[in-house]
């Protein structure tokens, strides 16, 4: 690739591809420079340092994931939206393991403020959950439950952690049915139960 053709966007996309191929933890400026056939110094005109490069990959991946989820859930609600959301999330994570790993790193508030990628994913999550008539703090609690369930399942699946003969896809589908049932019957917060407002 020609040195003159380097841009911050091309460098970031190449780093994301490298993450998928070699692992997010193996992204280095030197490895990326070699893939372009240039010296390390050539990349520093486009990224500040390794931390900046990895943050750029995280934002790129978060935006791609949000786009996938938004397209999947468009026009859907309830169980249909939940399944579409979860399947888009899982498919992206399994197809792009390095990119997905990038979305799990902690970013500085200033970095998050400069992009709407993560905010869009949160908005999509809350929008899907509001169809279950949830409000805060239940929205946040339910969102954390979904994220931890999806992430845990996907991580185990990607690492070959499911050794039972039961089909992994069928277990995933059943898990989504169980999550839908739970969201439909979300327990009232303790304060509401104590006040006698648990709906019974």
Written account of the structure:
The protein has a domain at 56-187: Tetracycline Repressor, domain 2 (Orthogonal Bundle), CATH 1.10.357. The protein has helices at 8-22, 29-36, 40-43, 50-73, 78-95, 97-102, 109-113, 117-130, 138-158, 168-184, 190-194. 68% of the residues lie in helices and 0% in strands. The model has no long low-confidence stretch (mean pLDDT 93). The chain has 200 residues and is mainly α. The chain is built from 11 helices and no strands.
Query: Nearest-angstrom radius of gyration?
Result: 20 Å
Content-based structural category: mainly alpha
Large-scale geometry: globular
Query: With helices defined by DSSP (H or I, 4 residues minimum), what is the helix count?
Result: 11
**Mean pLDDT across all amino acids:** 93
Q: What secondary-structure arrangement, pairings included, does this model have?
A:
Blueprint: H1 8-22, H2 29-36, H3 40-43, H4 50-73, H5 78-95, H6 97-102, H7 109-113, H8 117-130, H9 138-158, H10 168-184, H11 190-194
Helix pairs in contact: 1-4, 4-5, 4-8, 5-9, 5-10, 8-9, 9-10
């Amino acid at each position: 690739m020609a040195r003159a053709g380097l841009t911050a966007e091309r460098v970031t996309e190449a780093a994301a591809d490298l993450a998928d191929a070699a692992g997010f933890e193996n992204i280095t400026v030197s490895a990326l420079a070699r893939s372009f056939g240039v010296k390390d110094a050539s990349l520093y005109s486009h990224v500040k340092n390794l931390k900046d490069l990895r943050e750029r990959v995280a934002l790129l991946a978060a935006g791609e994931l949000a786009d996938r989820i938004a397209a999947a859930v468009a026009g859907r609600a309830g169980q249909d939206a939940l399944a579409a959301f979860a399947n888009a999330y899982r498919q992206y994570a399994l197809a792009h393991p390095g990119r997905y790993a990038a979305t799990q790193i902690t970013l500085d508030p200033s970095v998050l403020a400069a992009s709407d990628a993560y905010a869009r994913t949160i908005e999509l999550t809350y929008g899907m959950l509001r169809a279950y008539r949830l409000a805060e703090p239940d929205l946040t609690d339910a969102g954390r439950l979904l994220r931890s369930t999806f992430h845990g399942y996907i991580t185990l699946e990607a690492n070959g952690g499911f050794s039972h003969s039961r089909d992994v896809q069928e277990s995933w589908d059943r898990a989504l049915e169980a999550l839908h049932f739970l969201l439909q019957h979300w327990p009232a917060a303790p304060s509401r139960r104590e006040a006698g407002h648990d709906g019974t």
